[in-house]
Design a protein that fits this description.
The protein is 74% helix and 6% strand. It is built from eight helices and three strands, in the order ααβββαααααα. β2 (65-67) and β3 form a beta hairpin.
């Protein structure tokens, strides 16, 4: 199990590097329509009848996200002002989450409901797991609590997968309908979003592997 965790960490790093490489490569390919990421986001929201979501430029790279709490589409500077198929894809993907929110997409609602709890437990969960391993010979309770909380985090990571894949599906479908991208640009956008989605897949699998790793300590203690 320990070797599996190391392997998944390496795979995660490789995918992150590949994603950054793809984004740099595709950022150099101009969008034929000439629209910026902000303009793409604005058009997609408007086409879905959404007028209460604000589009904001944020710091950082690959920091793009939709915040359902304050209804903001947060785009990194390169995406906000970028005029490439990649910028359009990312902007449309984040607006895909806004559409999910507006249409009460069940998996997004479930993920949003879990966020407050996970924000609270994420601060002390690593310490609880570590302490639980060291205290296992005395009492299994701390580790049992830690594993239960980590299981919740793992469920969250798997709930995130349909949310992300569905947002990409909505984004690509809308870009085709609206004529924002050509057939060649669609292929570029699809590839960029696929690599972005793979980071979530690896994160979910890594979370499950880590959960099983800590659970194995409990199984071992019960046998002894």
């Amino acid at each position: 199990m320990y070797l599996l965790l190391i392997a998944l960490t390496l795979v995660s790093f490789a995918i992150q590097q590949r994603l950054r490489s793809k984004f740099r490569q595709y950022a150099a390919i101009g969008l034929r329509s000439g629209l910026s990421g902000r303009e793409v986001a604005s058009q997609m929201l408007r086409d879905h009848g959404i007028y209460d979501v604000q589009i904001i430029s944020t710091d950082g790279q690959l920091s793009d996200h939709y915040n359902p709490t304050d209804k903001t589409v947060n785009l990194s500077a390169d995406v906000y002002a970028g005029r490439s198929a990649t910028a359009a894809a990312v902007a449309a993907h984040e607006c895909g989450h806004a559409v999910q929110h507006a249409q009460s997409y069940s998996f997004l609602q479930l993920r949003s409901a879990l966020v407050p709890a996970l924000s609270s437990i994420s601060r002390f969960m690593p310490l609880l797991l570590l302490a639980g391993v060291f205290m296992l010979r005395t009492t299994p309770v701390p580790l049992e609590i830690g594993v239960a909380l980590f299981a919740l985090a793992t469920v969250f990571s798997f709930i995130t997968l349909p949310v992300e894949f569905d947002a990409s599906r909505r984004a690509l479908a809308w870009m085709d309908r609206s004529g924002v991208v050509t057939a060649d640009e669609h292929a570029v956008a699809k590839d960029a979003l696929w690599w972005a989605a793979m980071t979530y897949v690896v994160a979910a699998v890594s979370s499950l592997a880590t959960l099983l790793y800590y659970a194995s300590f409990l199984n071992g203690s019960r046998r002894n």
